Amino acid sequence: MKEDISRSHEANQRLQESEKRYRELVEGTADLIAHTDGEGNYNFVNHMAEKLLGLSPEECIGQCVFNVVHPDDKEETRNWFIECTEQTLQQSSVENRLVHSKTGRVSAVVWSVSFHYDNSGNVEWIGWIARDVT
Question: 3-class SS at 9?
């Protein structure tokens, strides 16, 4: 019994350490890191949302990634997204511009995107990393 408790405690410690390393990595980067559903609606975004999008991470939740894409880049970006999902690509990248919602400042970014599908080929979730190349 003591052995089981000890193993459980050690496993819990390793999990907490892993979570801490993950948070330090995600929150310590100068890149925007986001997780969306299959439609592109944010369910996680790191602190860089404030700098690039003008929105707090909490304000991003539920919003679509395309909402802050520069109007001149929206159609091309949506077409890229549709093409990626129709071809069930695992990874792709795209370059576009984002508009800061409060200041109107425009930033050029390169997105590295990983698509994750269910067994039927439907997009389950998407991982997004945007690097500011302005």
Answer: helix
What are the phi and psi torsion angles at 87 (to 5°)? -90, 5
CA distance 74 to 100: 15
CA 22 to chain centre: 14
Identity of residue 10: E
Cα 56 to Cα 125: distance, rounded to the nearest angstrom: 21
Average pLDDT of the chain?
91
* Kind of pairing between the strands at 123-132 and 42-45: unpaired
Reading the block at residue 3, the tokens are 């052995």
| 124 vs 32: CA distance, rounded Å | 21
Cβ neighbours, 10 Å, residue 61:
14
Residue 94's H or E segment, with its range, is strand 91-99
Instruction: Give the span between the Cα atoms of 60 and 56, in whole angstroms.
Output: 6
104 Cβ contact list (under 8 Å, min separation 6): none
Digit-coded pLDDT (tens) for 27-49: 768 899 999 999 999 999 999 99
> What's the whole-model pTM score?
0.82
